[in-house]
Design goal:
- It is a single chain.
- The chain is mainly alpha-helical and 342 residues long.
- The protein has two domains: 262 residues, Orthogonal Bundle (Helix Hairpins); 45 residues, no CATH class.
- Helix 1 runs antiparallel to helix 5.
- The longest helix has 120 residues.
- The chain starts with 24 loop residues before the first helix and ends in an 11-residue tail after the last helix.
Length: 342
């Protein structure tokens, strides 16, 4: 916004507007008054120009302060939204990760204890099954030993080698119920321990491999990761918080400065308006005093040869002459191109 041009009032050199010779004391008095108004007009015009420049400078200051406020507010909103979208979520996520890590470590400790118990039990069972397999091997050796063939024949676990068919005509005595499945039981005692030993060996090796995998996974390292993550998350959030607080202070300051410059701009506008009114008033007054023309009786007919019979003509012409005299007193020569109206 460019400064508004002044009213362009006429610059008076002195109270004698027409440079005519001063004839009467009344003219001197009027010229002195007009001289005062001319000087006052110059001062007011200078004040008006100064006020226009001041108002323009205030307007520029307002535009800068407004731009500063808008940018400061934009930066503050950016940091605030970053805190709401990232900072708060990050801190809460850190707390949730901490809970999960504690839970993982608790479960991991329970798993380690369970695996150790399984490993210990499997080891003990393997030793026992080894002893059982060894006993089964000894039993198998005993059954294959010829020294024990008689006992096996007695319990019916070995064929009789008697070739006399007459002896086979006699029915073998029945075994009592507790010994009826003795041969099957003996075979199971020989074959089953080996299978059981293979199974417990698989269980033992599987438990050992699981413990190895669990040790390799090393869940304990999550504690350090969680602590580092929590520290970094807090540091990042603290930085955002500090920037948001600093931005809030800057935004408040920018708003206060903007409010102040708006008040100053408003005050400057009213002051400029008042200055223009003052200049216009003094300019009109000076113009009236310097270029006065009495128009109270226009075209009175006193200057012509009109011999109209009118009993008030003489009075009218005298009044018209007074107007002319007043014009000469104001202007010095009665010549004026300014028509101020009634």
């Amino acid at each position: 916004m460019a400064p508004i041009e002044n009213s362009g009032s006429r610059e008076q050199q002195n109270g004698n507007c027409s440079d005519a010779e001063v004839k009467t004391a009344t003219q001197k008095s009027l010229y002195r008054i007009k001289e005062e108004y001319c000087k006052k007009l110059k001062v007011k015009e200078a004040e008006l120009v100064e006020m226009e420049i001041t108002s323009y400078g205030t307007l520029l200051s307002y535009e800068r302060k407004k731009c500063t406020f808008v940018k400061t507010e934009k930066n503050y909103l950016l940091v605030r939204n970053l805190e709401l979208k990232i900072g708060v979520e990050l801190i809460q996520a850190s707390d949730e990760i901490k809970k999960n890590v504690v839970s993982y470590n608790t479960r991991n400790t329970a798993l380690v204890d369970a695996l150790k118990a399984v490993m210990k039990t499997a080891k003990e069972a393997k030793m026992k099954f080894g002893e059982l397999r060894e006993a089964g091997g000894k039993l198998d050796g005993c059954m294959k030993d010829s020294c024990n063939s008689g006992q096996l024949k007695i319990i019916g676990c070995a064929d009789d080698d008697d070739c006399n068919d007459s002896n086979k005509q006699f029915e073998k005595p029945k075994k009592p119920d507790p010994c009826r499945d003795v041969c099957h039981i003996l075979k199971e005692l020989i074959s089953t321990p080996d299978s059981l030993f293979q199974d417990i060996d698989i269980i033992f090796n599987s438990a050992a491999e699981i413990i190895g995998i669990q040790s390799f996974s090393n869940i304990k390292t999550l504690e350090k990761f969680q602590l580092d993550f929590a520290a970094n998350a807090k540091g990042f959030d603290d930085l955002i918080q500090a920037q948001m607080i600093s931005g809030g202070v800057s935004l408040k300051k920018a708003q206060e400065e903007l409010v102040l410059v708006i008040k100053t701009l408003t005050q400057s506008g009213y002051t400029l308006y008042n200055k223009r009114n003052e200049v216009e008033t003094i300019d009109k007054t000076t113009s009236y005093l310097c270029c006065h023309k009495c128009t109270c009786i226009d075209d009175c007919g006193c200057d012509g040869d009109n011999e109209e019979d009118n009993r008030l003509k003489d009075c009218k012409c005298k009044i018209c002459q007074i107007c002319k005299d007043v014009t000469e007193i104001y202007s010095g020569d009665g010549q004026s191109n300014y028509d101020s109206g009634d």
